[in-house]
Amino acid sequence: MRNHSLKANLTGYAFISPFIIGFLAFTLIPMFISLYLSFTSYNLFSPPRWVGLDNFEKMFTGDPKYWNSVKVTLYYVFIGVPLRLTFALFVAMILNTGSKMIGTYRTIYYLPSIIGGSVAVSIMWRNIFSEQGIVNGLLMALGAAPVQWFGDPGAALSMLITLSVWQFGSSMLIFLAGLKNISPEMYEAASVDGAHPVRKFFSITLPLLSPIILFNLIMQTISAFMTFVPAYIISKGEGGPMDGTMLYSLYLFRQAFMFNNMGYASAMAWVMLIFIGVLTLILFKTSKMWVFYESEGGR
Amino acid sequence: MAEPKVPVSEYGSMAGTRLQKGAVWRKVKWPVYHILVGALALLMLYPIIWMFFSSFKESRTIFTTATTLLPADWVWSNYVSGWKGIGGYSFGHYMWNSLVIVVLSTLGVVISSALIAFGFARLNFAGRNFWFGVMMVTLMLPHDVVLVPQYIIFTKLGWLNTINPIVIPQFFGAPFFIFLMVQFIRTIPKELDEAATIDGCGKFRLFIQIIMPLIKASLATAAIFSFYWRWEDLLGPVLYLNSPDKYTVSMGLKMFLDSESASNWGGMFAMSMVSLLPVILVFFLFQKHIVEGISSSGIKG
Amino acid sequence: MKMRKTVALATMVAILLLITACGNSGGGNASGGAQDGKTLRIAWWGSDARHEYTQKVIDLYKKQNPGVNIDIEYASFDDYWKKLAPQAAANQLPDIMQMDISYISQYAKNGQLEDLKPYIGSKIKLEDVSENVVSTGLIGGTQYGIPTGVNVLGFQYNPELLKKAGINEIPADWTWDDYKKMAMQAKEKGIYFDESMTADIFFNYFLRTKGHTLYNAEGTALGYEDDALFSEFFGTLSQMIKEGAAPSQETLSQNKGILEESTVVKGTGIGTWQWSNQFVALQKVADRPMALAPMLGPDMEKGIYMQPSMYWSIASSSQSKDEAAKFIDFWVNNEEANKLIKGERGVPISSKIKESVTPDLTEAEKQVFDFVSEMEPKASPMSPPPPVGSAEVIATLADYVEQINFGQTTPEEAAPKFRADANAILSNNQP
Predict the structure, then answer these.
(1) Residue C86: cis peptide before it, omega within 30 degrees of 0
(2) What's the pTM value of the predicted model, to 2 decimals?
(3) Using CB atoms, which residue from C110, C251, C402 is nearest to A148?
(4) Contact assignment for A258 to C399 by CB distance below 8 Å
(5) Most buried of A176, A219, C118, C322, CB within 10 angstroms?
(6) How many CB atoms sit inside 10 A of residue C184's CB?
(7) Chains contacting chain C through 3 or more C-beta pairs under 8 A
(8) DSSP B207
(9) Per-residue model confidence as pLDDT tens digits over C108-164
């Protein structure tokens, strides 16, 4: 007997057809167009002109601003994401207690993530770190010199990273749910064996949580690579100072919509796509070495 | 002070384990815990609290008194001037525009995602795994890669200055929500479908009558997230909406920020607060759903 | 069985209907320009105050021309161009557009703008406008825009603080040497003299005083070849910063675009270099008496020019060009309208209107009008509008200047690099 009857196929495809249509219309076809455009020079005004590999050549050899944006983005991702996840895990462990207040704390800690992507919060962040903002006020109260957060490329980027760490909430919730799934007996058994809390953390918590860490790591890394709104609002669309907050997405956006270099922007997008693809693949492949999967059917 | 139902998990209070046996520690453990966790929570919220109080300061004094939390004189005028909006459109107008977009998008994305998720989770058809794989890949696809072509396509379709480019793609499901719902549906015992099928229930009725009620929680989660993302969306309106008549809340706020001349800081802060209000309100009303939804998305992912 | 499929199908149809329905609700009367000839679309960029009075002007026009409907579109400067470019590509430009000097070439060269010559005299009356001003709207000999008003560069300062710095007044014919001396004098008293200068605008001014321009007449390359000019100008500016006569680049970056945080407003700096139409807003925020001084010499007369603050242009794809031209005429010549505008888009180009609105001006607005009138006879003709690609050139220049001021490179090092980059951008943008 065949597995799939015609009727089953039809019903199945009927249900997922919105996805297929949407995928073709809003993802696959645009991706091909984007691939084509990446080999052209296109400014919206006149038709695309085929330029071969010029865009890629310029990107890799003739555009220091591009490399700067790569550098800034890598800093942002590889400092920001681990910090965010560590913080999220830390808070999740603190909150993984039986206290009745946990619901409230959880809510409070998660709130920044909910509003984090909004213009309002970026505006707020801009002002907190302004010359006379509270952060500098605090520094001065502690006797330190105020920092020109928008005046120094490194400081500006660390301000952006702080904003991203502040929004650790969704990773925290996922960790929290993961922690709840670890049965208390495991810890009890370990306690009987006289295991130290640190030991328990490394030999029980981390391994059991590793699939969730992987999931968080991948999702957070991808979304970090695509960060746009905070950099856009905080630097008023300019990526300054000295391109210190010129994240990849912002530079791409500026090339596409400020200078109308649609071809170049498309090429940039494809390089990013390939880079993220490879990175995700590496994470998945190496995950076999550090991710511990429980035997199936445990729920 | 809340009484714990179960003892504090040991790995949750690493610092305290050595003292755990001391009677004193047992007494002060919870107050100390709450003070520390509460202080951290306050720190987390401080920026928002600061913005809230600043919105009651006079525009001029926001910068000069940034380090004092409470305004010297409480003024409402920021809310009045901010609500007036920019260039003849009140902030309420922007809120309404955002609301229209949010409601249409959310409706579209929740219904379509649920249909699709059901297809993936429960139906057997040729190529299902392939399409599921495709969907998982699109979940991770950087949006930047389709940004330019979508923009060109929507332009050619004459969709500029309409909400179509923002709303219509939502009617074809969003991978994140589909994934979320698939995870949910998979937790429903298959025996339930089988029983229903034996009763002569077709797939669509199965979906509507059996599955839908059972995944209400994830539908709610998706709806809430869709609400947030559309409400806060800036890129869509920046690229596609031209006339202020159609501007959304994000655009309204951005207009406060883009100033060639003197800007109304107080008004901007006040409207920032107003724009966050629905978000925070929905959050507190539905926080259980949100937490569950987010939590389960990572499990067994 | 059949029923199930029907239900599934019905749902699909329902969803599709919903899609199209919402499409209509969103689309409907949207873009598409003015088909009936009586609905105009007008677009501009600017701030809240501008949006507000422009709307009033439009309401006034509608009142005087019943039956004409005007749809408005506005945004911030950056967003404006983001929105306009795709509309140009789709042939859906608004009928009337505010055009900036650095973008008008691109739109003109791509055939997006209407030649306004045929309308001048018949639909748009420019008898009271000097030929020098009208001609600023010429690109390659074709009238692609009508200036909304004129601006002139100057130093806008706080006279009281100047006195405190031990300087009695700024002479009308001051030079770069005077400037350096005064700046050092102010610095001794712990007062900033200025806030450095916007790179592209003032470099162009400086080049003009030396007989060059930022771009060559054809717009194919930069208008100078001697890198010493670059080093001299930006060397002076970075020296000012290094000496402490102007705030550090850190502070400048920090407070960029926030009027409230500028040294002039905070009372720590004497003045700032900018266009005359920005004076009113500055004075208002500073909330103290302010004054205007001319640009630095020698050869100030060669450097300054009456710059159109912006233009009104008509889209070549417009279906209602006559009606659009009528609105521009209204803008230029209607007294009541100009009493609302009050020189916010530059001093009115019509001498008659200028006279008639003068009694209604505030003190600060009057100062601007007087300053512009004083400079007008001294000004030289404007250089041709910046060519296609200038937005990118300006951004590149700003980057280099930032690097110089941060001490990461020297003016001598940056000069040839900037020239190479800029020329590459400009030649890339040649069709």
Answers:
(1) no
(2) 0.83
(3) C251
(4) no
(5) A176
(6) 14
(7) A, B
(8) I
(9) 888 899 999 999 988 888 888 888 888 888 888 899 999 998 899 999 999 999 888
Listed in sequence order, the DSSP H helices in C110-226 are 131-134, 159-164, 176-188, 199-209
Residue B92 tokens, joined: 């309420």
Closest residue to C86, CB basis, from A44, A130, A148 = A44
Range A283-299 burial, b when 16+ CB lie within 10 A, else e: eeeebeeebeeeeeeee
Angle at C416 between CA C410 and CA C417, to 5 degrees: 80
The CATH number assigned to the domain with range A45-292 reads: 1.10.3720.10
- Please give, rounded to a whole number of angstroms, the shortest distance from the CA of B222 to a CA of chain A: 14
CA C144 to chain centre: 16
Identity of the residue numbered B42: L
Minimal Cα–Cα distance from B74 to chain A, Å? 19
- Please provide residue C68's backbone torsions phi and psi, each rounded to the nearest 5 degrees: -90, 130
CA distance C42 to B245: 13
With an 8 Å Cβ cutoff, are A27 and B63 in contact?
A: no
Per-residue pLDDT of chain B (301 residues), as tens digits, is 343 444 444 444 444 444 455 677 777 788 888 888 888 888 888 888 888 888 888 877 776 676 777 887 888 888 888 888 776 788 899 999 999 999 999 999 999 999 999 999 888 888 889 999 998 888 878 888 888 889 888 888 888 889 999 999 999 999 988 988 888 888 888 887 777 777 777 788 888 888 888 888 888 888 888 888 888 888 888 888 888 889 899 888 888 776 544 567 788 888 888 988 888 888 878 777 776 666 665 543 3
Q: How far is C171 from chain A (nearest CA, A)?
A: 34
The number of helices, as runs of H, and strands, as runs of E, in chain B is: 15, 0
Mark yes or no for CB contact B228/A114 under 8 Å: yes
B91 sits in the region (left: phi over 0; alpha: psi -120 to 50; else beta) called alpha
Q: Do B9 and A181 touch (CB under 8 A)?
A: no
Are C22 and B265 an interchain contact pair (Cβ–Cβ within 8 Å)?
A: no
Rounded Cα gap, residues B17 and B12, in angstroms: 10
What gap in Å lies between CA A27 and CA C377, rounded to an integer?
59
Residues 6+ apart with CB under 8 A from B70: B53
Tokens coding C24: 């209509």
Give the burial class of C72: count Cβ atoms within 10 A of its Cβ; 0-12 exposed, 13-18 middle, 19 or more buried: buried
Inspect the interface and report whether the beta carbons of C26 and B163 lie closer than 8 Å. yes
User: Which tokens in the block code for residue A190?
Assistant: 């370990």
Terminal C-alpha separation, chain C: 63
What six digits make up the tokens of B220? 């709610």
